[in-house]
TrEMBL record:
Species per Swiss-Prot/TrEMBL record: Winogradskyella thalassocola
Position of the signal peptide: 1-21
Taxonomic path: Bacteria, Pseudomonadati, Bacteroidota, Flavobacteriia, Flavobacteriales
Annotated keywords: Signal
Name listed for the protein in its UniProt record: MORN repeat variant
Keyword Signal carried by entry: yes
Domain of life: Bacteria
Length: 236
């Protein structure tokens, strides 16, 4: 009986040793680069910080990243890498396990199309595009929970540039304006919740310039020259 126990223990030890040898963790290759499966904990804790596979120093396949919540590791992001470049498909996750946002990253830079979701929901909240430098580029949309557009804007190299619109939850246009390199420029029209014009005029370098018209109940109420701050006309 004793011999059988010793034999069984020896066999188990041999199996575990062999398994560990076949699946080493946190190993370096001959050049000192991370290779194989790696996992790291937060400093002086047993709580996981990340885990994933390296191939001669390069992240490959799926990496999981964790944040500390209440002293415990909670999955916060998944990045899926390939072997050819530094671009990864990224999903950020809330502690409720709902997806917060998803898109592509090159290192720490957002690139391409990114989608953000309403809190604890799978309904889209924002869609925006980034250039290779990680700056907003092209169209950006903000959505209400009912799916309607709340805001639409155009960006160029990280700055508002072009047409921008704001809408009510019922789809009524509230503001229509234009930007050039981050500054309000040209015609702007503001509307009330019924779609009636409340004011219209021009901006120059984000300052009101020239004659602006102001309305009440859809009718012209006053005109102001904002270049000179002179009231041109006002309904009595």
């Amino acid at each position: 009986m004793i011999k059988q126990k010793v034999c069984a223990l020896f066999t188990l030890t041999l199996f575990l040793t062999s398994a560990l040898a076949q699946n080493p963790v946190n190993q370096l290759d001959k050049d000192g680069l991370r290779h194989g499966f790696w996992t790291k904990n937060y400093h002086k804790t047993k709580e996981k910080r990340y885990e994933g596979v390296f191939k001669h120093g390069k992240e490959i396949d799926s990496f999981k990243f964790y944040t500390l919540s209440g002293g415990k590791s909670v999955l916060s992001a998944i990045k899926v890498f390939n072997e050819t470049d530094s671009i990864a498909d990224v999903t950020f996750i809330a502690s409720t396990k709902k997806v917060i946002s998803e898109g592509k990253m090159n290192g720490k830079r957002f690139i391409g199309l990114w989608t953000f979701y309403h809190k604890n929901s799978s309904i889209k909240m924002i869609e925006e595009n980034y250039n290779e430098d990680g700056l907003l580029e092209g169209e950006r949309f903000v959505y209400f929970k009912n799916g309607g557009v709340a805001e639409s804007a155009h960006y160029k190299n990280g700055e508002l540039d072009g047409e921008s619109k704001w809408f009510s939850e019922k789809g009524v246009l509230l503001r229509h304006t234009h930007y050039i390199v981050g500054e309000l420029e040209g015609k702007t029209i503001n509307y009330d919740a019924l779609g009636d014009i409340t004011s219209e005029g021009n901006y120059s370098n984000s300052q009101k310039k020239g004659i602006w018209k102001y309305y009440e109940d859809g009718k012209l109420n006053k005109e102001i020259n904002h270049t000179t701050q002179e009231v041109i006309s006002k309904k009595e």
